[in-house]
Structures are given as C-alpha cells and as structure tokens.
Amino acid sequence: MESTVEAVLKELIHLPRGRQAAYLESALEALPKPESKEEWNTRFGAGTLFEAWTASSVASAIYQSNAKIIQRHLKDRKDWRILEIGGGDGRLWSRVFDKDSQGQLHVIDPAPEVHEQMQRIVPDGVSLHSQVALAQDAEFLDVDLVVCSLTLHHVPGADAAECEDRGIEGPGKLFILKKMKEAIRKRCGLAILNEADIYCDIGLAQSDEILIDRLIDSYVRRCGLSLLHDIEGPTGSDDMKARWRAIARHWCLEQVAMGHMSLADRDVYELDVPRWLGLIARAGFDIESHQFTDDYGLFHQYLLN
Fold first, then answer.
1. Which residues form the domain of 28?
2. pLDDT digits over 250-281, tens only?
3. CATH of residue 150
4. What is the pLDDT of residue 111?
5. How far is CA 109 from the centre of its chain?
6. How many Å from the N-terminal Cα to the C-terminal Cα in the chain?
C-alpha cells in the first residue's frame, strides 16, 4: 500500500463501495502522522488550511456563485441589511464588498475567531454586528438578505420532534429555516442556503453501514476527488497543494470516523437534496431556484424567498 494521501484517494475511489470502509481504516494507519492538525474555524489568514479550503475548486465555486447573486440582489437597495449565519473567514464578503460599500452586516457564529476575522475583512462603510449564539427564543431582525452557507449541517435533526424521538437536544434545522423566512418577509428579501447533497442525519444510527458509506461518498468520492484534482492540477503553488493534501487527509479521510461517534457527538448532520427541498417547503419558503455549484455534485445552492 503506497502511503500518500493521493494514492489512498485513488485506491478508495476505484474500489467497490463495499470494500472502501475497511480499506480506509487500514490506509489511515499506514499514512505518516501529520505534523499538526488545524481544526475548522480556528485559524484564518495566509498559510492556513481555511485559506487553502476557500481556494479549492469546490469551495471557491460556492463563493463565486453566491457573490454574483448577492451583488445582483443588493444593486438597487439602499441602507441594506444582511444576516449571515456562520461567518467562516469572511472570504465571501471580500468578493462582494468594495471600499465604497455601505450597509449593515449581522453575523451569527459561535467562534470568536470568526468575528475577529470579519472585522479585518469588512470595509469601514459596512457596520458589523456580531452575535456568538442563536437562542431558541431569538428573533431575527428584518433584513434584505440571509446567507447560510455550509452551516445548518452542524444542527442535528430535521425538526424538534425528530431530535426528541432520538434523545437529542435541540430544535432541529426547521427552526432556523423558519427564522430565516421571518427575517426576509417584511423587506421582500432573499435567502441563500448552501449545503452538501448527502444524507447523514440522526435517522442513521452510530456505525450504521449506510451512514459510513454516505460519509465516504461525501468526503472521499466527491470532496476528496475534487481536492485530488486540485493537487494534481496545473494551478496552485507547492505550498497550496501541500495544504490541500492536509485538508484531504484531516478534513476528508479522517472525517469518516465520525460515523462511529454517538448521535450527539457527531459534527455533521447533512440532508440530501430531496430532504432539503421538503424541509425548506415546510419552513414556508418559495424556492426560486436550486442548483449544484460544482462539477462533483457535492454542494447545492438554494435561493429562497
């Protein structure tokens, strides 16, 4: 077994699906231990894994598509207000705002590092309002635009009833979707939702073979494959390729082990497209459009009003 991330990805993708989980477990043991692990949403800026993630083909396609929609939606609006649920490194707004932009940006994210990074990204004319938590009784302000990109998959369960049925605390994704709908109603706004097309929510129990297969499908067959193409492609410096390699190992291959965690300890509770569409409709949204933003059928964009 060749002990490189690229070799593992290639072998996994070509193996029959029923043999991939066992191969992945042994392959990770054979890979050299990484010098360090950078956790998601803890470090930003030049040289970080998050910077490399935003430069990857699948992630940059999301930013590019969202930015075009936002600029078009805000074009003729004065004193606009935006709510972002999950701020990341602010890379989206560096594509949207320029030095003359004026308005309000409200960001909800539990990580203090996110808000510090957003302060560095947002121009002076945009007032930034930070909130670290979303209380169940919270009322969103009225806004022209809500952006929720790769965030709701951290919320377990479709709704409170499903959570209660499986002994999980929380209101479920439907609660937040309804709050998003309330936030844009008065100003005839738009909501942008980006999520992966993969079902790995609490309806699949710990260590379920289907759950493990779904995680491999998302993190390896699609996201891992896209990173492999980035690593072996003609663009990107050697340093960037090294960071894409670290992402493929730490944020893709190693993430599959999450399927053996308890329901409450998982970090990803994703829905596939049909389930997202059904939940979005239950929240009262009209679906203006929906589409994949990448060539791998991984990330889906929903425009809602």
1. 5-33+207-260
2. 999 999 999 999 999 999 999 999 999 999 99
3. 3.40.50.150
4. 87
5. 13
6. 51
Task: Tell me, yes or no, whether 40 lies in a domain.
Answer: no
* Whether 155 and 216 share a structural domain: no
Structure token pair of residue 164? 């209660």
3-state secondary structure of 111: coil
Over residues 25-60, the pLDDT tens digits come to 999 999 988 766 788 888 988 899 999 999 999 999
Closest to 219 (Cα-Cα) out of 83, 21, 30: 21
Q: What is the pTM of this model?
A: 0.95
Q: In this predicted model, what pLDDT tens digit does every residue of 118-154 receive, in sequence order?
A: 999 999 999 999 888 766 555 678 999 999 999 999 9
| Residue 136 and residue 10 share a domain | no
Count CB atoms within 10 A of the CB of residue 82.
21
Of 53, 215, 213, 78, nearest in space to 149 by CA: 53
How many independent structural domains does the chain possess? Answer: 2
Residues ≥6 apart with Cβ < 8 Å to 296: 58, 222, 223, 225, 226
80/164 Cα distance (integer angstroms):
38
> Which residue is listed with tokens 């969202």?
66
Asked if residue 44 belongs to a domain, the reply is no
**Amino acid occupying residue 252:** C
How far apart (Å, rounded) are the C-alpha atoms in residues 18 and 198? 18
Q: Where are the beta strands (DSSP E) in the chain?
A: 81-85, 103-108, 126-131, 145-149, 190-196, 287-292, 299-304
Residues 6+ away with beta carbon under 8 Å from 196? 150, 153, 218, 270, 298, 299, 300
Q: Are residues 273 and 177 in the same domain?
A: yes
Asked if residue 195 lies in contact with residue 263, where contact means CB atoms within 8 angstroms, the answer is no
- Looking at 105-109, 137-141, 178-182, which range is the least confident one? 137-141
